[in-house]
Structures are given as C-alpha cells and as structure tokens.
Specification:
The chain is α+β, with helices and mostly antiparallel strands. The chain has a single domain (5-121), classed as Yope Regulator, Chain: A. It is 38% helix and 36% strand. It has 3 helices and 6 strands. The chain has a 6-stranded antiparallel sheet with strand order 1-2-3-4-6-5. This is Sensory transduction regulator.
Amino acid sequence: MSRDPRTTVERFVAELEGETRRLAFAEWGITVDAAGWPLDVGLAIRDGLFRAQAHVIGPDRIDPHDLLRWNRQIPYLCFAHTRDGEVWIQGELPLSAIDPPQLDAFLGLLVLSVVQAREAAGRAKED
C-alpha cells in the first residue's frame, strides 16, 4: 500500500463503479445516484486534509434547523447553505486516516446523508 495519500485516493477513485474523473492534481470528481438523481462529489487533497463536497438540494427545500440537528449527528461531515438557500454537504479527513476502508466509509456516509436529506425534503414537500 502506498504511503502517498494522493496515490491511495487515485487508486480508490479508479476502482469505483460509475462516473469518475480526475479534475486536476490531487482533485477528483465522482457521480453517483442519490435518492433518484445524480450527486456530483468533488474530492481534493488540500491543506493537509482530504476534502469532499457536494450540492445536496436547491433552496427552500430543507429547514435550516434540520441541518443544525443533522450536523450534530454526523461525524466528519456537515451540511451548510448558501445565502440563496442552496444546501451543500462537506467533510474532511486528516491525511493520516486515508486508506481504502476509511475512504469507503467516509464517502458512503456522505452519500447516505445526502440520500436521507433529499428524502426528508421530498417528504416535507408532500406535507
């Protein structure tokens, strides 16, 4: 196993099913299905951290108080929103934690969190 986290992430991303791409040095993109529509996740190694971020849902679909509650429950990840109300998820891991099982768990948790948020937004829209 390589000790270089860039090589570890590069190999991990290359083995994923679905659409993956290398965007720049130490930056990747993956696209997966999350609650019935694509989730584009940006991955990067910057400032000594492995970072991930993805757009979750458009404005006025999720109560900001739910985001705060979810942020207290999810390790390594947090939801945020823009001034316009667009909801994003972002997360960070120290480079020392980068190995394939940890990457898999981290990105799995990110996708699961997005799915749950999108499903909650769908239920709220139905109410």
